[in-house]
Amino acid sequence: MRYLPKSDDERRQMLAEIGARSIDDLFAIIPAEYRLGRDLNVPRQQAESEIIAYFRAAGQKNATDYASFLGAGAYRHYRPVIIDSLVQRGEFLTSYTPYQAEITQGTLQAIFEFQTMIAELTGMDVANASMYDGSTGAAEAVLMAMRVTGRQKAVVAATVHPEYREVLHTYLRYREMPTALVGYHNETGRVDLEALAAAVSSETAAILVQSPNFFGVIEDIPAIAEIAHAKGALLIVSIAEAVSLGIVRPPVEADIVSMEAQSFGVALSYGGPFCGVIAAREQFVRQIPGRLAGQTVDGAGNRGFVLTLATREQHIRREKATSNICTNQALVALMATIFLAVYGKEGMRELAEHNLAKADYAAKTLSALSGTKLRFKGAPRFHEFVLQTDEAPAAWSRRLLDNKIVGGIELSRWYPELRNCTLWCATEVMPRETIDAAAKVLAAAPVEA
Amino acid sequence: MNLDTNKAEAKPGGPHTLGKVRTHPTQNEALMFEKSAPGKRAYKLPPLDVPAVDFSSCLGKAYRQTPAQLPELSEIEIIRHFTRLSTWNYAIDLGMYPLGSCTMKYNPRVNEFVARIEGLAEAHPYRPESLAQGILEIYDLLQRCLLEITGMDAITLQPAAGAHGEFTGILLTRAWHESQGNPRTKILVPDSAHGTNPATAAIVGYTVENIKSNADGGIDLEGLARQVDENTAALMLTNPSTLGVFEDEIHKIADILHAKGALLYMDGANMNALVGKVRPGDFGVDVMHLNLHKTFSTPHGGGGPGSGPVACKKFLEPFLPIPVLVRDEYGAKHCTDAGDWEDTNAEPTADGCPPLFRAPVLKPDGERVGDSEPMPLHPLGGRLRWEYNRPHSVGRVRAFYGNTGMFIRALAYILANGPDGLRQTTEDAVLNANYIRKKLEDLYELPYKTPSMHEVVFSDRRQAAHGVKTGDIAKRLIDYGFHPYTVSFPLIVHGALMIEPTESESREELDLFVEAMRSIAREAEENPELVKTAPHSTRVSRLDEVQAARKPILRWKPEKQ
Q: Peptide bond before B299: cis, by omega within 30 degrees of 0?
C-alpha cells in the first residue's frame, strides 16, 4: 500500500523487537467471535490514475457546462488562484488545532487576522475562529443569547433561510425554548415589524433575522434592534451572503452576528465545507462558542498568539461548556482570510457593486417580460430577487435547462403562499449574455388560449 | 491595540539579534494590517458589462458609508505573508505528529486534487438532482463503504465534525427513546472520555453521569450494572478507549445496557485501530460517529474542516436527519416535490465507474428491498435523490447535505487502500504504537499495563520527581523536531503523555522519536531546567497564556492618532 512506509521485513523485525510472534498477537484482546475473518467488501485498491478517472467521470455526470442563477445561501463568486496555492501548503493543510502555540504561530496569526477582518466587516467588537457553517452558527448564536440573557424564548423571522430555521429547530428541540415565527411584509419582503414587536416580550432572549434575507432583501436593522432592545432582548443578525458587507451597512446595532463566509473564496462543493463565524459585542465574549485566538507575549517580550479563554470550551468545562464544538472550519477560514486580503478595502466595495449591478440588471430584464413581475420591490436588495411568473416554474425551468441554464429556485418549496415565485441570484461572474439568454427563453412561453 | 504589549516592535528584530542586524521578516512578519498602504491592489475585476447603478440611492439608508478597514496589499505581499506564516507551523508533512486521539496520519495529495475537480467543486447544492447524479453517486458509494467498515445498517453524512456527529447520534437516541414512550434522563460517560461527550449529552438535554474506569482503564462492569437503570438513555463509549485499550468485554457492556433498554453509543475517534479487523456493528454498538478527518485521512487544516458521519442500526434509521439519500429503480415511480408520481428517468448512463454498491432501493410502493449487496463493475441502474418525507426524523443538523469536499477525500482514501490496504493500515498503526511502548516503557511510567492498540499512554510520574511535567517534556520534544503528544489527557492518568504515532511513520522516524524521548528522560534527571524552559529552538518561547486570557486582545486595532 503506497501510503505505508514499511517493508514486510521491517514489520517482522519490529514485531520481533516487541516480542510478538505475529501481528495477530497485537489484536488478541479482541474477542475472537467479533474479529472480522474476511476482507472488507469495499472496492479493490485503485491506482491514483483510476481514482482520478473515477472522480472525473462523476464530475462530468454533474453537467459542468450549465449557467446557473442559483443562490439561496450558497453563492458562486470568483476564487482568486492564490487561495488554493496557499492553503495547499502542507504547513497549513496538515497541521492540527494550534494548541502548541510555539509551533503553530502561522495558523494562530492567520486566525487573529481573520477575527479582525470579520469584526471590521460586521461592525462587531470580536469574532471567533469559525463555526461549522451559517446554519449551525445561527443556532449557536441563539443558544448564546439564551446564556447571556438568562431568558428562554426566541423570535425568528420567516425570512431567515428556511434550512437555517430547520437547524435551529433541531438544536432547540430538547431545550424547552419556544420560538415564535414572524412573517414578512407582502410589499417589501422584510420582516413584519408590527408582528415582530407584538411577538417580543420580556421573556425573549433574542430576535433572529437575516440580512440580506432569504428573498435578497435588506432588513431594517436599526428598527429591529430598537424592538429587541426595548424589551431587553438581544438582536442576532444572520448573514448568508458575506460579500454584501462590501456595500451594505453592517448591522452595528446587533448584539451577535452569525455569518456564513462561503462567499469569501470558498468553493460551492455541493454545500460544504463552508465557514460559519460568530461575531459579537465585547461584553459577551465569554459566552461565545468555539475557539478564539488572542494576542500575548512570550518570555522575551515578543508578540505572539495563543488560543485563549479556553475555559468556555468542552475540553476544559465538559458538560458545562458553552458548546460541544471542537473541530471547526480552520482551513476554510484561512481561504476567507486570503480572499479578503486579495480584495482588501477597495476591492470589497467594488466586488459588491458588481454583484448588485448584475442582479439589478437581471431583475429589470426578467421582470420586463410579459407574464413576469418582480416581488418585494419596496425595499433595497443586494444580489438576489424574487420573480413571479404567470407560467408555472416547472414549465419554464425545463425550457431553460434545455438551453443549459439553471433558473431561479422555486420558493413554494418553503413558502407555499409564494406560488410561481422563484428566487434568482446574479453575482459578479454572471455574464450579461446569460441574463439576456435567460430572458429570451423565459419570454418564449406558449401563449395560453 | 495598545502597542505597549508588542515588545517586538519596541525592540526591532526580536531577541536573537546581535548588533545592528535586524531579523528578516521571514521570522518577524507583521500583521497584514500593519503592511497595508492606500492604493495597493491584489485584484482586478473585469469591466462591468451591465449598466452601473447609483448604489447609494439604490440602497438608501442601507448603504455602507465607511468601508471596512481591510488591508490594502499587492499579490506578492499576500503570497509572502502567508508563506512566511506557514513556515512557523509544524505539520505532518514535516514530521511525526503523535497527538493521541487525533490520528495525525498522512493526508494524500490526490485527495486534494480530486476534491477540486470542476464538476464536483462547483456544484451548487440546489442544482436539480438530475444534474447532480455524479456527486450523489459519490455520497452513495462512501455511505456503502462506511456501512461495510462499521457493520452498521444506516448512515447520515450530514454532521460537520465529530462533536456534531455525537450531537446527531444522541438526538437519534433520544428520538428513539421518545418513540418508546420515555426519553429518559441521563447519559453515562466514562471518566476517560473526550470532553465533547459530556458537552454533547448536556446540549441534548441529558444529565451526565460519570462512570469510573476499572484498574485496567476499562469499564467496570459491576459498577456499570449498578449505574444503568430505566433512566439511562445511553452509554457513550470510546472504543478503543482514550488509553488505547480495547474493551474486551464490550459484548457484556452492550448486554447490560440493552437489558435495561439503554443504547450503546460509540465515539469513533479511535476507529483507526479497528478498520478491517473488527466492526462496531458486530459487537453491539447501536449508534456511532466516525471522524473522516482522523481515520479517513482528510486534512486537519489547522483545526478543521472535519466531517462526522453517524452510522446506526436499523431501528434508529427512521430518525436520521433529513434529507436521506435513496435510489429509485429504473421504471419505478417516485414522488416529485409537487406531489405527483412520475417515472424515474429510465436511461442508464455509461459512466465507466469502478465497482460500486447497490444503494437501498425503493420499490414503487416505497418499501426497501436489498441492502449493501456487493456489485460487480458495471454502471448502476436507477436514480439517486434526496428524500425529505421522513416523519420521524430528528430534523436537519446543518444546511444542505454535509461537508461534501471531505466525502470526496475520504472516498479517495478508501479507494486508494482497498480492503487489503485498510487492514494493513490498522495493523501498522497498532504495530507502531506497540513499538513505541516497548521502547519507552523502561523510562516512562506505564500506568495501565493492558495491551495497547493504536496509542499508548504513559505518565510523567518519574520525571515529575525532578519537577519535570508532561507539558515540559512535550515542549522539549519540539526542540528535537517533533510535534508534542497529547498532554494531560485522558484525565484518569495523572500527568498523561498520550502518544498516537499512526501508520504513517516509518521505522526510522519512530526510532528518532524514541531516541528523543529517551534523551529527554535523561535530561529530566540531569538538567531539569533545560526541559522546564523548553522549547529553545522556536521563533517564540513559551507564551503568556494568563495575560492572553486576563485582558483578551482578540483583534488588531489601528493605533489611535
A: no
- Longest Cα pair distance anywhere in chain B, in angstroms? 84
The proportion of chain A whose per-residue pLDDT surpasses 70, expressed as a percent, equals 99
Q: Which of B407, B122, B398 is nearest to A70 (CA)?
A: B122
Asked which of A300, A321, A340 is the last residue of a domain, the reply is A340
A371 and A330, same structural domain?
no
Task: Say if residues A111 and A105 touch (Cβ distance below 8 Å).
Answer: no
Kindly state whether residue A34 falls inside one of the protein's structural domains. Answer: no
User: A360 vs B58: CB contact, 8 Å cut-off?
Assistant: yes
Burial class (CB in 10 A: 0-12, 13-18, 19+), A31: middle
CB contact under 8 A, A328 and B304: yes
CATH number, domain containing residue A296: 3.40.640.10
Core vs surface per residue B197-235: b (16+ CB within 10 A) or e: bbbbbbbbbbebbebebbebbbbbeeebbebbeeebbbb
CATH of B422-547, one of 3.40.50.150, 3.90.1150.10, 3.20.20.70, 3.40.50.300: 3.90.1150.10
Interface test with B, best of A2, A3, A245 (most B CBs within 10 A): A3
Quote the CA–CA distance of A152 and A205 in Å, as a whole number. Answer: 6
Nearest to B414 among A42, A50, A271 (CB): A42
Who among B43, B55, B162 is closest to A342 (CB)?
B43
> Would you mind telling me the total number of residues written for chain A in this entry?
449
Chain B partners of A173 at a C-beta cutoff of 8 Å?
171, 394-395
State the ipTM, two decimals. 0.97
Per-residue pLDDT of chain B (561 residues; tens, 9 = 90+): 343 444 444 344 445 555 666 667 777 899 999 999 999 999 999 999 999 999 999 999 999 999 999 999 999 999 999 999 999 999 999 999 999 999 999 999 999 999 999 999 999 999 999 999 999 999 999 999 999 999 999 999 999 999 999 999 999 999 999 999 999 999 999 999 999 999 999 999 999 999 999 988 899 999 999 999 999 999 999 999 999 999 999 999 999 999 999 999 999 999 999 999 999 999 999 999 999 999 999 999 999 999 999 999 999 999 999 999 998 875 444 444 444 444 444 333 333 333 333 344 444 444 444 443 443 333 456 889 999 999 999 999 999 999 999 999 999 999 999 999 999 999 999 999 999 999 999 999 999 999 999 999 999 999 999 999 999 999 999 999 999 999 999 999 999 999 999 999 999 999 999 999 999 999 999 999 999 999 999 999 999 999 999 999 999 998 875
B 47-106 residues with CB < 8 A to A:
48-53, 55, 58-65, 67-73, 75, 78-79, 81-94, 97, 99, 102, 104, 106
Domain of A436, CATH number, reads: 3.90.1150.10
Across the beta sheet with B310-312, the strand order is B154-156, B310-312, B287-289, B263-267, B232-238, B186-190, B207-211
B448 at interface of A, judged by CB pairs closer than 8 A = no
Q: Is the CB of residue B388 less than 8 Å away from at least one CB of chain A?
A: no
Range of the domain at A376: 67-78+344-443
Which candidate from B90, B145, B302 shows the least CB-CB separation from A97? B302
Kindly list the residues from chain B whose CB atom is less than 8 angstroms away from the CB atom of residue A349.
64, 67
| B554–A249 CB contact, under 8 Å | no
Task: Indicate the helix (H) or strand (E) that contains A238.
Answer: strand A234-239
Cell 455511505 belongs to residue: B143
Test B554 with A97 for CB contact under 8 angstroms.
no
Parallel, antiparallel, or unpaired for β A153-157 and A204-210? parallel
Which chain A residues are within 8 Å of B398, Cβ to Cβ?
Answer: 132-133, 135-136, 167, 272
**Extents of the domains making up chain B:** 3-86, 136-147+324-389, 422-547
Asked if B555 has any chain A CB less than 8 Å from its own CB, the reply is: yes
